Amino acid sequence: MQEKNMLNWNKVRPTWDEYFMLQAEIAKLRSNCLTRQIGAVIVRDNRQIATGYNGTPPGILNCIDGGCKRCQERINGKLNSGDNLERCLCTHAEANAIMQCALFGNGSSTKGTTLYSTFAPCLECSKMCITVGIERIVVLHDYPEDGNILLQEANIKLDKLKREDILPWCKFI
């Protein structure tokens, strides 16, 4: 129980939601997007089946190296957040996690899963979540162009964690 004293916390270990959100936080460290780093994890029966982070597709110059002109323009103050999203070359973290399931042959296993994402999914990613049968989404932050209304209409449960709930665990990673 020495670890409990180190945490100065009433818990011995993180809840499942905290644990998988920490995994999403780790996934976002691989993001190569200039403007926003997002990580996602898909979970079935408390087992992680896929991860994703946002960035340019394989074989395309990384966003941080100038691969996405739209993100460059946003960083240079020529575009506002949310403007010209259709020009962005970065694939979203949620989409990457969903595609990982398809790429590695476990696409049908997304039915009834939970998606953990560091940001609420956009409208396009929300449509993907509905289509592949994700039934619950857990997020840390809101996203200005989210698909929350569509997710509610599809009866997908959307839960939001508080960042302070996972911060005590961050010093261990």
List the helices and strands and how they pair.
Blueprint: H1 2-7, H2 16-27, E1 39-44, E2 47-53, H3 69-75, H4 93-103, E3 114-119, H5 123-132, E4 136-141, H6 148-153, E5 157-160, H7 163-170
Parallel strand pairs: 3-4, 4-5
Antiparallel strand pairs: 1-2, 1-3
Helix pairs in contact: 2-7
Can you tell me about this structure?
The protein has 173 residues and is of the alpha/beta class. Helices cover 35% and strands 17% of the residues. Strand 3 (114-119), helix 5 and strand 4 (136-141) form a beta-alpha-beta unit. The chain is globular, with a radius of gyration of 17 Å. Strands 2-1-3-4-5 form a five-stranded mixed β-sheet. It has helices at 2-7, 16-27, 69-75, 93-103, 123-132, 148-153, 163-170, and strands spanning 39-44, 47-53, 114-119, 136-141, 157-160. The longest helix has 12 residues, at 16-27. It has seven helices and five strands.
Task: From the structure above, extract its key features.
173 residues; alpha/beta; 5-stranded mixed β-sheet; 7 helices; globular
